[in-house]
């Protein structure tokens, strides 16, 4: 990052954790002097509506109003991912002020997004935590779970299963493990669906579709409040927001359920 100049202009991205500063629901736009951004640390991270998008280093004791990045899931993917990029860069810079090898102070490099130790020269890059997320189908039914964090007395949101990939584990192994750990179900026919950066604070969601093989639902009660098989043609519970890869996985699986049902009829 470098000092923002008075003459720098465009859209401005200020973050606090996974929250963004918005004015009337939009990123502030204009000259740096208009918002008092001159001499703050910042960098150009892309284009927003055809104009430069500047990321400002996270500010301490900032009294501006911030809103969750989740509230902007309705945006086109390209824009949502660009905002996620800004959130994750600031998270990286904030959490890597010191060298993890020798403990001395880090400084940001000029040639790339990285932090380098002023003592031993060890260079660190933004850390991304890979996570799997999977929708499981059994004939014309989809497996959905109500996680503890989503539980509400009235029911709460039901979604697909997900979890972090462990060291020395493939994505496919992580899919098998997470489904079995959380529900006791064995699955087969795992295939890649898509991915989504998830800046809460620095995950990469890697999505899969899978088919049921065997087993009865047995909950991992420390994480899952409830899990059920839901038929595609019956009313579904509250689902994840549109724009999430979880919602896309559910929609794709419901379409597969419909195809399977149509084949039965013919």
Walk me through the structure.
By secondary structure, the chain is α+β, with helices and mostly antiparallel strands. The chain has three domains: 2-88, Nucleoside Triphosphate Pyrophosphohydrolase, CATH 3.90.79.20; 97-126; 129-265, Nucleoside Triphosphate Pyrophosphohydrolase. 21% of the residues lie in helices and 37% in strands. The chain has helices at 32-35, 77-95, 171-183, 245-265, and strands spanning 2-3, 9-16, 19-21, 29-31, 41-48, 51-56, 66-68, 106-108, 115-117, 123-124, 129-138, 141-147, 151-152, 155-156, 161-164, 186-198, 203-214, 224-231. A hairpin with a 4-residue loop joins strand 16 (186-198) and strand 17. Its EC number is 3.6.1.-, 3.6.1.22.
Record field, number of beta strands: 18
- The level of helicity is 10-25%
Mean pLDDT: 95
Query: Secondary-structure element sequence?
Result: EEEEHEEEHEEEEEEEEHEEEH
The CATH homologous superfamily of the largest domain corresponds to Nucleoside Triphosphate Pyrophosphohydrolase
What spatial form do the alpha-carbon principal axes imply? Answer: elongated
CATH class of the largest domain: Alpha Beta
Q: What share of residues are in beta strands? A: 35-45%
What ranges have pLDDT less than 50 throughout 5 or more consecutive residues?
none
The secondary-structure class comes to: alpha+beta
The radius of gyration is 22 Å
Q: Tally the helices: what do you get?
A: 4
